[in-house]
Each structure stands twice: as C-alpha cells, then as structure tokens.
Amino acid sequence: MNDLSPKERILRTFKKESTDRAPVICPGGMMNSAIVEVMNKTGHKLPEGHQDGKIMAEIAIDVHENTGFENFGIPFCMTVEAEVLGSEINYGNLSCEPKIQKEAFDSVSDVKFKELGAMEKNHRVNSIIEATHSLSKKYPDVPVIGSLTGPISTSASIVDLISFLKELRKKADDAHKVVDYASSHIIELAKLMIENGANVISIADPTATGEILGPKMFKEYAVRYLNKVVDAIHAMNTPVIVHICGKMNAVKKYMPQIKSDAISTDSLVNLKMLKEEYPDLTTMGNLSTFLLEFGDEEKIANQTDRLVRDGINIISPACGLSTSTPLKNIASMTKVVKES
C-alpha cells in the first residue's frame, strides 16, 4: 500500500478505507498556500494568477513541488463567488490576498438575484476552470481540490456584514432567500470545477461559527445550507471537506449533522477529543497557522507528529495560512507526515 498515489490516498481516506498513512494537504481558498517565498523563488506570482489560468496552474504546481502538500488547491482567495454576485473586489498584491472592497447590497431585502449561469460567464471563474482542467490532465495522480466559500460567508460578502448578521433574525425570510440564492450559485461553481477535473471540493465558511451565529442560527442557516451544497456535490460523485472556524463548543453537537466527507477545524479544537466523541467523523487539521508562521521547525515537527499519533485522518494547516509563512516550516510539517 506504500505505492498509493496522493489521489488514491485521499479518496480512500474519504471512503474510510485503509491507507498507508494520512494525507497532508492544503486545500486553497481560505487555506491559500501560495506563500511569498515560493512565488519569489519561481517567478509565478499573485495577484496576476487570480486572473490568468496558466499562471494560477503554475503557482499551484510550484506550491505542490516546494511545500510537500499532496494536492493542488485553487483558487487562492475567498472572493470569487462574491465578485460574480456583484461585490467590488480589491485583488491585493503579492503578500496580501484579495478582499471584499464593498458589498453589493446594504440589506438582504435589497439583493437583486442573478440568474444561474452567471458563474460560467465570469472571467475569473474561467481562469479557475482553465487551471483545474490543466492540472487534472497533467497530473492525474495528484488530487485537484476546488475551494469554495460557504453559503453564509458568501452571503455576508454580498450584503453588508453587520446588516446581514442582524437580519438573520430580523428579516429571516429574506435572509433565507439570500443564503439559498448564494448556495445555488456556489453549487454551479462546484459543478464547473468538477466537470473540468476537480477531484475534491473544499468549503470554508468562516462567518458560520458558533461564536458569530450561536447554536440556533448555526443550525438554522449553516447546517441547512452547507448540506444543500454538500448534497449537490455528492450527487456529482465528488467528496467534500467542510472547514468550521473558531471554537466549537457551542455547535459541536451539530458536526455529525453536516454531511461532508471530512470536517476540518481550527487549532482551538482538540481533534483527538472530537474524534473520540464522534468516531464516525473523518477529521482534518489542525496544525496552528500561527505556529507555522512564527514557530521553529522542531516544534512544528513535534506538533505534527502529535496529530499523526492522535489518528487525525487528514493532516493540514488549521485555518488561513499567512503568505509570509517560511517554506522550511511547511516542509517540516509535510516531511513528518510522509515519514510516519
């Protein structure tokens, strides 16, 4: 079994089949692994790579070859869905990821709903699709992970954030329409990725945390619409990772209700305990990205080894990876997993 390809290894992990060891990955999107050191080393750089499919693919290859992560993870930001649905984007620079410059609407009641089909007409989406297709054809043994922004975070990126969070309660009917609308377009983007070679879809929904939403709203909105997206992706015979940010105490009981093939968590969460409490969960994570950026190689190796010994199913950074993370620190992490 030691000759498993990275793609075989992760797909077997999702199916709860035996493997030689845990995969070690970084799925893109919120966990963008296009660090400055790699881009300066290779000459393939952002922000140009956000708009150009060839450069995007080259950066994904550079990351895979230099860091030891066993996947390609694209795109390298969390603004694509919001841009298609009308928000203004600042594309950032080499060291700063794209951000929402201005949300398209002030209230959930103001949202103008675009017809499905908007994704495939968007230039940036087509760059992602071009990169996905190129990577999947050139490297058939390496999983291409298409990274999506979750329904709550996408909605909060097209409607003013403070208004949106208040209106989840005050204007629940309109809020549900908006989150459902965002979910449908997210599904469309997933479909385009899968049709062009993505083997896995990863969804990060950082606004959908227990601290921000509270248990009631988490169940009413986050679980419901994450599952809408997950169900649609499963209907396309593709596995799904869902990342939940922040502390999990208030919403931990809902984790088994999320239908994804793996749950990724922040470093604040004790994954060993989560795994013991919910043994059917496939766990992913959760090496501190603060440690990866500022720690030393020995401590990173020790913490990674602990995750491996704890039986965490997929080893990855815990959350958003800083673009200034030293390459040697990431290499220390991936080396430990591969030698386990």
From TrEMBL:
GO biological process: methanogenesis; methylation; one-carbon metabolic process; porphyrin-containing compound biosynthetic process
Cofactor(s) for this UniProt protein: Zn(2+)
UniProt xrefs under InterPro entries: Methanogen_methyltrans (IPR052024), Mtase_MtaA_CmuA (IPR006360), UROD/MetE-like_sf (IPR038071), Uroporphyrinogen_deCOase (IPR000257)
Keywords, in A-Z order: Lyase, Metal-binding, Methanogenesis, Methyltransferase, Transferase, Zinc
The keyword Cell cycle belongs to this UniProt entry's keyword annotation: no
UniProt xrefs under Pfam families: URO-D
Broad enzyme group: lyase
Molecular function per GO: metal ion binding; methyltransferase activity; uroporphyrinogen decarboxylase activity
UniProt KW Transferase keyword: yes
Domain Uroporphyrinogen decarboxylase (URO-D), residue spans: 6-339
EC number of this enzyme: 4.1.1.37
PANTHER family: METHYLCOBAMIDE:COM METHYLTRANSFERASE MTBA
Listed name of the protein: Uroporphyrinogen decarboxylase
Organism classification: Bacteria, Bacillati, Bacillota, Clostridia, Eubacteriales
